[in-house]
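Researcher: I'd like a structural prediction for the single chain below. Treat it as a standalone chain; there are no partners to consider.
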Amino acid sequence: MRKIIHIDMDAFYASVEQRDDPSLRGKPVIVAWRGSRSVVCAASYEARTFGVRSAMPAVRAERLCPEGIFVPPDFTRYKAVSRQVREIFLRQTDLVEPLSLDEAYLDVTVPKTDLPSATAIAEAVRAQIREETALTASAGVAPNKFLAKIASDWRKPDGLFVVKPGQVDAFLTPLPVERIPGVGKVMLGKLHALGIRTVGELREWPQVELEQRFGSFGGSLFRRARGIDERPVEPDQPVQSISSEDTFERDVPLSAIDEQVRRLAGKTWEATRKTDRVGRTVVLKLKTAQFRILTRSFTPEVPPATAEEFTAIALALRDRVDLPADTLYRLVGVGLSGFRDREDVVEQPGLFEDAS
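Model: Treating it as a single chain, here is the predicted structure.
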């Protein structure tokens, strides 16, 4: 039985800004560049009360929170704090799997310290983060990664929640089914159409029937509904690619995907800002109404430096799709791949690559 902790820094970028500038404390801080094509990198809890969320278009955030204070992101500073926090993790275990600059899994089944339990270790980590960085973090403790990640969100901000092995069923049963990773808007609609609104209701469905309806993801739904997650904590896994995709509520022509491409590009770009590595290849993924998958990619001479550049390339890749104009599409995705360590990035000639 593993002992897993998921640590998630509270409103990380915004909290760093409020820590370093006392005039921002207690105020609605929005970490983003202003502009019609900019997206929110982070929002303080004061801004979140207005409905502002990360990956939201900055213009919408400004409409929701007219008094919001926009602060341009400073990733060099955020990465320095992230390294400081990671050093705190490594005092307890070498099995640390960073997910981004502001969150990580820790496997403390066999800890490096003599603290008596995973809960005590989580408390110690949170206390050290507060003392050494003047920031707060929330933690979830559970027998696996899936449960620990849900638990860390349970008492945010600055909270700790523990799911013991004997409490797994009672914890999961009443949860809304959308708390399961991968259950987005479209999948949620399909589950609701089947009368499945909670994890407990999902648990009543046989695995074979879920797989018949949803393929391999049906098997994942079956396992998660029972709290099963055998993935180990994997330290030092370099980022290879980051992407976001979504399925349309109804099939649409290529000419109707621009807004979705912009939204997904913003979401993907925000996620790439949480890694120290640099991605070079922009990827557009499409799935037709007949389930044919196409990808179009472009590697510029210099890696995209802004969300605007990244989005523009993604939109341009649409023009590389050569299917008939009346082709309908059910899914679109935007990704960045070809990640390298920053010091290893070497300029190369641009290259278009097509695959279908």
